[in-house]
Amino acid sequence: MNPKRYLLIALIFLAIIMIGFSTLRNKFSGNPVTISGITVPPIPALDPAQIEVGKSAYAQNCASCHGANLEGQPNWKQTGLDGKLPAPPQDSSGHSWHHADDVLLSIISNGGDPSYSAMPAFREILTEAEIIGVLDYIKSSWGQDEREYQWWLSMRDQYQ
Ligand code: HEC
Question: Is residue 68 within 8 Å of 132, Cβ to Cβ?
Answer without folding.
Answer: no
